[in-house]
Amino acid sequence: NAGVTQTPKFRILKIGQSMTLQCTQDMNHNYMYWYRQDPGMGLKLIYYSVGAGITDKGEVPNGYNVSRSTTEDFPLRLELAAPSQTSVYFCASSYGTLNQETQYFGPGTRLLVL
Amino acid sequence: AQTVTQSQPEMSVQEAETVTLSCTYDTSESDYYLFWYKQPPSRQMILVIRQEAYKQQNATENRFSVNFQKAAKSFSLKISDSQLGDAAMYFCACQTGANNLFFGTGTRLTVIP
């Protein structure tokens, strides 16, 4: 199993550009998540999904959109990049059921908005 | 609302010695889970250990163990026989639901040869 994979590893965007961060998991997990990690801070939840076709906002959703058309994939879209979105983005997944809550993280995508 | 507090921004330990990283949390939920994650320079978030709040017995994973004090809402991580590869940022986290995982701000651990 590859676990949770993310692409790209690093990207530089200009203000106002858009991009999609890709996330794929091969563990047949129902739940998937997107977090951002700002320098010197812990992770904060952007969006999450409890299954294909179902998504919901986390703590810091503004400026982002997500979709979940398959169990495996959970892309994160930035429509109008802003410097405040410079961060490291982590995708994670879990079974989401009792005693199976542990989230497994991808390697992260570092995004720089200039 | 949940909060997780790590009061030690940085810690250091001599190789082969023992170090304890502190974490306190606050939640009104009765069912929750606590985690320690390790983040090396590669930035990968690696699960170190987890503790179910309903279990009184402290979790252990090889050289890693926790001291879970439920009444005090304290969840410290003890690393025994520290190794150079243990150097990393360590994050404490509390989860009350599948979509409610809150992280502390991290403790940077340096291992001195």
Structure summary:
The complex is a heterodimer of chains A (114) and B (113). Chain A contains no helices and 11 strands.
Structural commentary:
- The complex is a heterodimer of chains A (about 110) and B (about 110).
- Chain A is an all-beta fold and about 110 residues long.
- Chain A has no helices and eleven strands.
- In chain A, strands 2, 4, 5, 6, 9, 10 and 11 form a seven-stranded mixed sheet that branches. Chain A has a four-stranded antiparallel sheet with strand order 1-3-8-7, with no helix packed on it.
- The relative contact order of chain A is 0.33.
- Chain B is mostly beta strands and about 110 residues long.
- Chain B is built from no helices and twelve strands.
- In chain B, a hairpin with a 2-residue loop joins strand 10 (about 90-95) and strand 11 (about 100-105).
- Chain B is globular, with a radius of gyration of 13 Å.
- The mean pLDDT of chain B is about 95.
- The interface of A and B includes residues 44, 56 and 103 of A.
How many DSSP E strands of chain A?
11
Could you name the ranges of chain B where pLDDT drops below 50 across 5 or more consecutive residues?
Answer: none
Outline of chain A: globular
What order do the SSEs of chain B take from the amino end to the carboxyl end, as H and E?
Answer: EEEEEEEEEEEE
Please report the distance between the alpha carbons of the first and last residues of chain B.
41 Å
Going by helix content, strand content and strand pairing, the class of chain B is: mainly beta
What number is the mean pLDDT of chain B?
93
Oligomeric assembly: heterodimer
- The helix-and-strand class of chain A reads mainly beta
Helix content of chain B: under 10%
Number of helices of chain A: 0
Q: In what range is the share of β-strand residues of chain A?
A: over 45%
The overall strand count of chain B is 12
Largest sheet of chain A: 7 strands, mixed
Q: Roughly what is the average pLDDT of chain A, rounded to an integer?
A: 92
Q: What sort of overall outline of chain B do the alpha carbons produce when their principal axes are compared?
A: globular
Helix percent band of chain A? under 10%
